Amino acid sequence: MRVRAIGTHAVPVKTGLIGLLTGVLGALLLWRACLPRARERHPGAWLPKELENATIAYSEKRFVAMPPTPLGAIVDRVYRRPDQVLVLVEFKRRDRLVVYESDIVELSVQRLAVEGASREKVSEYAYVVVLAPWAETRQTMRVRLYSKERVHHLADRRNGLLKGVVPPRKAESPGLCECCVFKAECRVIE
Amino acid sequence: MAILMCKREIPILWASRLAEMAICERRVVLQHKLGRRSTSAQRNAMRAGRREHAAMHRESLGCNFAVKGLSAPRCSPRWVILLLGMMERAPRSVAVRATDAFKHLVRISEAFRPRGRQ
């Protein structure tokens, strides 16, 4: 009888303990999820001095400027300075703290698209913010954007490439060719 | 109607497409002829990038830290951050749309915040 009594009591105690542990674990996970991440605790720490007094004007917004060349862009974030000039910010997830030419081209097109669609003045400088997975803080780099003429020249060159009028150039960095998905087809072109 | 049709016919040149020109022109031509391709590593990187972008968009909605003097205490309540955080793993478009829907929710919560917590 005693053994049975112990047995009948042992099951609810075990279940209760498991339930309690699960509850505590669940509460801990919920608390952890509620806590802002290290990056979010000081979200404005990476902001350059120029943007300290600025406000966020747009975030993840699509802009399309129609004439003369229809240019489209989805901006990551746009700040409005106190003098009402917009400043573009582009977020990049990278292991290295580096700005590529493609970033400058992308931001230059964004500038024309935002200027064309919103009719607001956009700064000729922009910021590339590198979100390194290993770093707690973000790194900011200021870049000078290309002129309107240079962007349109690049767009014309692209049209020429796609029509087959202009011969395409090879990538300058040989490292890019190593991991390119078109490596086999590219050799045929050569 | 004619204007609408005309607008539809003109292809929009997206910033990311033109940026590819600075990487490799041959790749631009091959992508145009053969279609877009990507390796699994590139897809993973893109997924991670989308998550980061959604997090940054959420952050910009959650707290307007750009205004000098405002920092974490002025951020949205934790329940809003938690709800928005649950969407972090969703694709970019879904996450961005969903976070946009929460924009009003954030504003309402900001309105009910006690004024003393600056």
Q: Give helix % range of chain A.
A: 40-55%
Percentage of residues in DSSP E strands of chain A: 15-25%
Distance between the termini of chain A: 90 Å
The averaged pLDDT of chain B comes out at: 68
Mean pLDDT of chain A: 84
The gross shape of chain A turns out to be: extended
Distance between the termini of chain B: 52 Å
Structural class per helix/strand content of chain B?
mainly alpha
Q: What's the arrangement of strands in the largest beta sheet of chain A?
A: 1-2-3-4-5
Q: Give start-end ranges of low-pLDDT stretches of chain B.
A: 1-7, 65-76
- Shape by Cα distribution of chain B: elongated
Description:
The complex is a heterodimer of chains A (190) and B (118). Chain A is an alpha+beta fold. Chain A is built from six helices and five strands. Chain A is 44% helix and 23% strand. Chain B is mainly alpha-helical. The radius of gyration of chain B is 20 Å and the shape is elongated. In chain B, helix 4 packs parallel to helix 6 (92-101). At the A-B interface, helix 1, strand 1, strand 2, helix 3 and helix 4 of A face strand 1, helix 2, helix 3, helix 4 and helix 5 of B.
Helix-strand blueprint:
The complex is a heterodimer of chains A (190) and B (118).
Chain A (H helix, E strand, L loop, with lengths): L1 H33 L3 H4 L13 E11 L5 E10 L5 E7 L8 H18 L3 E9 L8 E6 L3 H16 L10 H5 L4 H7 L1
Parallel strand pairs in A: 3-4
Antiparallel strand pairs in A: 1-2, 2-3, 4-5
Chain B lengths: L1 H8 L3 E2 H5 L5 H10 L5 H23 L15 H9 L5 H10 L1 H9 L7
